[in-house]
Amino acid sequence: MVSYLSYLKKFCKSTPLAEKVSHKSEFHVILFLDLCRIHGGTGRERKTGAIEEGSSAMAMLEDYRSALRAGQRAYRACVARGQSPYLAVLDDILVNVNIVAQEPLGLVEIPAESIVGTKTSGRHTAFAPNFMPLLEPDTEFAGKWSNLCDAHLDEGIHTPIIAYEFLNKFYVQEGNKRVSVLKYFDAVRIAGTVTRLIPERNDSLENRIYYEFLDFYKLSKVNDVHFSRLGGYAKLQTLVCKASGESWTDDDRLSFSSFYTMFRQQFLCLLYTSDAGDDGE
User: Fold this and answer.
1) CA dihedral sign of residues 264, 267, 271, 272
2) How is 55-101 classified by DSSP, letter by letter?
3) Per residue in 182-194, pLDDT tens?
4) Helix, strand or coil for residue 227?
5) How much is the pTM?
């Protein structure tokens, strides 16, 4: 198993941040387009062929059927593992948790992979854990999902979702279908108005790491790096050449985002190569 932090150290040493990351906007636009290609292209590039060839309504319904199949696969996989085949519900998770503070974070660019559930149980059975739909194509729900898909392809989804953050995972209060459509089109980040729920301190490893993250977030406003061991965020602060307690600038965040995207791509390629090698042995 490749150590995420140790690989980051090697990456930093071999590729200094100042040399690898440009502050020019053109660089970030190019990087974004490259990331879109890695994730299969933008929605319009990947999925509009049917629209040009036939009825828009038929094309949108086909998108829904495709998303439904992805949801059904995730459903079956969870059942096979003995896990819930539906979205996690934050209200259920918080039943025995003492929340000591609620912190409005304002508008946040949420990593799509960190959106893991819904705030209440009202609609959680309509989605698999990957946010793909589970209701049949002849339902009102499917029609609304398809209309939202059509709107996304025409002009994009601009209305932020409303979500709660707990332990650096996000749960949707309003906008589940928006998240579903955007995840279907492989969105990397989703805009949302977020309220953070801070649990009481305890001695669990997860809680202690989360409190380290809170200190790191106050300085950086970076929310897409996760660690499974204590001390990771302090080491990361050092790796990006920031002193302990030193706040990040907007330029720092932009540079790190670009750098982290490149690093993550290389790390995942290394990880997949390593896994493939293990399978072949």
Assistant:
1) positive
2) -HHHHHHHHHHHHHHHHHHHHHHHHHTTS-SS-EEHHHHTTT--EEE
3) 999 999 899 999 9
4) coil
5) 0.77
